């Protein structure tokens, strides 16, 4: 997938029952690359780097859950990249890695000539974040195409999730492509306008209704959306 300044590779990675999506962003001019939420299959990331003849300079982490940070240690050992996570997430969970930098809300970083903005979107975790660049939004477990992340673990908060979802819903242009950490039927890369149509949580206007729906009893699984 091509944008003006970067190329994007979607990486479906698995470990047992876990299925995640990691993403490789390659700056077209410098061939520097960033990987978003690297997990489970190191060979998938390394093969993508080889295909694009790219150098891994950056790791972008949306939050600190194991299935999103699993490959940080071996990647740091092999490539010595800079690692980014929202500062609020670092302060709460004390995640550590070499060359680790905490981002403030709205802070910009660069991968080669490609500008990327970190957005603080708590709810699933205390300081979860998304990464926004031209035409693309990487959302981790904040929003999926079909719903939003669970809010029942340490540091999570359905009230914060409401404000994070509504912020992204209002901030993102309709043609922005959304790349979440998991998929529950729809392929990653759906447009924001598509989410406006099919994401149940985008349809809920009031905070009270949103919280009661996200935290309702009797859900068949933690990933139930409807």
Automatic annotation (TrEMBL):
Signal peptide residues are: none
Q: Which residues form the Metallo-beta-lactamase domain?
A: 19-182
Q: Which top-rank group of organisms is this from? A: Bacteria
Going by the UniProt record, its keywords in alphabetical order are: Hydrolase, Metal-binding, Zinc
Needed co-factor(s): Zn(2+)
Q: Which reaction does it catalyse?
A: 3',5'-cyclic UMP + H2O = UMP + H(+); 3',5'-cyclic CMP + H2O = CMP + H(+)
* InterPro entries per record: MBL_Glyoxalase_II, Metallo-B-lactamas, RibonucZ/Hydroxyglut_hydro
What Gene Ontology molecular-function terms does this entry list?
Answer: hydrolase activity; metal ion binding
User: Briefly, what is this protein's role?
Assistant: Counteracts the endogenous Pycsar antiviral defense system. Phosphodiesterase that enables metal-dependent hydrolysis of host cyclic nucleotide Pycsar defense signals such as cCMP and cUMP.
Task: Identify this protein by name.
Answer: Hydroxyacylglutathione hydrolase
Please name the source species.
Answer: Paenibacillus algicola
Q: What is the lineage of its organism?
A: Bacteria, Bacillati, Bacillota, Bacilli, Bacillales
């Amino acid at each position: 997938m091509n944008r003006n300044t970067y190329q994007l590779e979607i990486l479906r990675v698995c470990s047992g029952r876990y299925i995640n999506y990691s993403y490789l962003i390659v700056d077209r001019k410098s061939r520097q690359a960033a990987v978003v939420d690297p997990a489970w299959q190191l060979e998938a990331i390394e093969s993508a780097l080889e295909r694009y003849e790219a150098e891994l300079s950056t790791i972008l982490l949306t939050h600190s859950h194991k299935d999103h940070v699993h490959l940080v240690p071996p990647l740091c050992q092999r490539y010595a990249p800079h690692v980014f996570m929202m500062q609020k997430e670092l302060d709460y969970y004390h995640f550590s890695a070499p060359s680790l930098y905490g981002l403030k809300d709205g802070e910009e970083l660069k991968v080669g000539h490609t500008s990327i903005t970190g957005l603080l979107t708590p709810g699933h975790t205390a300081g979860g974040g998304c990464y926004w660049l031209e035409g693309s939004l990487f959302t981790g477990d904040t929003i999926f195409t079909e719903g939003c992340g669970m809010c029942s673990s340490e540091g999570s908060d359905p009230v914060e999730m409401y404000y994070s979802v509504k912020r992204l819903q209002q901030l993102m242009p309709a043609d922005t492509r959304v790349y979440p950490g998991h998929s529950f039927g729809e392929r990653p890369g759906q447009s924001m306008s598509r989410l406006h149509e099919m994401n149940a949580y985008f349809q809920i206007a009031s905070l009270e209704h949103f919280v009661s729906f996200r935290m309702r009893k009797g859900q068949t699984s933690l990933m139930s959306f409807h």
